[in-house]
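Here is a protein:
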Amino acid sequence: MRKLSQTLLLILPLLALSVLSPSAFAESKTDTVTKTQPKVLSKNNKNIEPSELDKLQQRLNDIKQEVSAATKDSELSSLNNQTLELVNQTDDFISALLPDLAQIQTQIDVIGPAPAEGAMPESPEVMKQRSTITAQKTQLEKALEHAQTLKTNASNLSTQILALRRNALKTQLALNSGSILGARFWSPVFSPQPEDVIRLDNFIGQVKEAWDNAWKPDTLFGSTVLFVLALAVWGYGRRVMDLLIVWVCTNGIPDGRLRRSFFACATVLTTVLTLWGGAGLLYQVFARQNTLTPLLQSFADGVFTLIIFSALIVGLGRAILSNQRPSWRLAPMPDQVAKVLGIFPPAIAMVLMFFGIVEQVNTNIGSSVPTAIFGNGLASLLVGILGCLAPIQTNRIRRHMAAIGEPIDSRSTVAGLVHIVASAVAISILLSLLIGYIPLARFLTYEMVWVGIVLSSLYLMFKFVGDACESLFSANNASGKWLKQAFNLDVRYLDQATILFSAIGHTLLILLAAIALFNGTYGATTPMTIVNKVIEIMGSDSLGKINIVPANVFNALISMALGLYILRTARRWLNTKFLPKTTMDTGMRMSLVTLFSNIGYVIVILVTLSLLGIEWNKLAWIVSALSVGIGFGLQEIVKNFISGLILLTERPVKVGDLVSIAGIEGDIRRINVRATEIQMSDKSTVIVPNSQFISQSVRNVTMGSAQGVVTIPLTFPLDIDPEQVRTILLEAYQMHESILDMPAPSVSFSQLTPDGITLSVTGYVSSPRIVSRTKSDLLFDLLKRLRAANVRLSSPQSLTIQNITPEVADGDSDNSPKDL
């Protein structure tokens, strides 16, 4: 028995070696692995070196860099194809590694595990073979793990490229993706891509799972209550809120325009709150147990944004049209037109809501670009049709009213402009869809909606702020009376406060509207961008590498037009509303308006250049050109410009002054940037450069507290009674209504000559502008009185009129010496 056991112990290692004798192949392969790494066989029976894995990794890194620099859809599409090809190559590599790994695992199973501690040791040859094969397995597992990671990263990169292509649909407006009448556009419906079907099924599965979790027995009661509350808020919440608003308006707000504007703004707010509140309750049905997946949570966040904007469209339509209470309507609009237009805001909101949800699904599941184009195209088509139908229906109703003789107000300029622009944009949307520019149609659609939301909100808030300021500072309301008594204010100051605070509020609203228009769009997070197909960059190295992007040019032009409009509106407001309420004289008001205009033009120019992307530190060439130009031909223009600023700030002369300069005498009517306009007594205008008012002597007749004085010298014979004549002259002056009592008129003995006695009578008037008229009246009266008293004049006679600086007043400006 002992001999048998010894024999078995000798035979078993031999049997093991005989079993492992085919391992010569494995051993040679192991040696190859330790030296050069193994070669594997792909599904296509072609050898793939493990070093090729490093090449694939490097290619993936290169694609990532190219994706970050790509700006066109064609570039992204090519990179996506390269990424998918890399995924296939990596999959081939993995498929080739798996059989080798399985074969090595079989060899390890045949050799068996290493003997336990204390057991009989195995032969060195077996230990070496196990170690070699184990090292080979470890190396293959690392290569397989690397390949799996590489495949995952490439797949994720492909998903990111698809997302970038979908986002590019919002910015690359010149991308021709095919007409909506072509088969390519409808392919997602009749021949959807398999990847889209799989992703959509996964999304639907997650939605179904969330639905089932919400109606489980343990959550059924709470879900039912929340669902019923959501329906109640949607169905009855707005009606209850409307009744509450009406009660507040009739009982808490004074009668007037504020009541209407407050009701309109509150209508918008309650509409948004009720729709958003119902959606929030419905969201809690599914999310209160934190059972939503990240995909569904992202989808829900996007839907909430859509609900807010759609509710805002509905609310603005209800507030502006006011079909429930036509007498409270802010916009001047016939009732028939308002009723016809009442269906369009909800219809547009429903279209954008539905296709916005479709777009959110496409974005979150990472659907293909054709599917995203299909949803955008249908949304743009329906909105474009509605945009065309609204003006058509409006014109039809107006023609019908005119035909039956009903009174209809003429359309205002702003309303006509909105009508034309909306029609043009809607037609452009439909044409873009027909010729295949669906991204452009989508851009126009959402820009039209967003601009409509911003301008409608601006209109309502404009009305509300103006009416609120007028009601707050009105002397007829309780608030105005309290302010008047508390601060002992005059009614004039309350009027000034009304104008000032309403202007501040309107200015802030305009700034907010401008920010909203330039920095956001409905349904998109990117601002307006450029048509890369038309032009990518304007500018050259000769301009100091100033890159002028077409989008910046477009924004700069809009900013300049808007800035000039705001500037002119503000200037008109200052000149006609605010400054006349103050105690400033006409000249001061005109100077402030002119100075404000000049500063405003400079600001508009700076903002325009800033939006163009021009940096001031790169404009050395402009400064050099200006310096040369100033040195040769522009110095007079610059000198007059600086002199104009000095005249407006220092104010040695102002609008309305009677001045005399270089033999020119007249009234200053306007101080411009380069020259000053002086109106002569014959109503002609003389243009005087501003620099002359700084460098020459100027006689300002009306500067300071000035008065006009009329001195009439008369020569009488030597045989007259001086006291009698003196009395006649003083009575004539004292009886004239234009002669001031203080200083009192006086008569002086000028001279005694062989020709007679010269007496000078002097009287003061309020302004030198009425001297000529007063002088004429006095001469008629004096001759009449002297003739009645049988007092004759010596011949010849002379009349001299002198002026001292008087106060500004209306009237004649002829104060030159006259002879009688």
Notes: The first strand starts at residue 40 and ends at 41. The chain has 23 helices and ten strands. The chain has a mean pLDDT of 76. The radius of gyration is 46 Å.
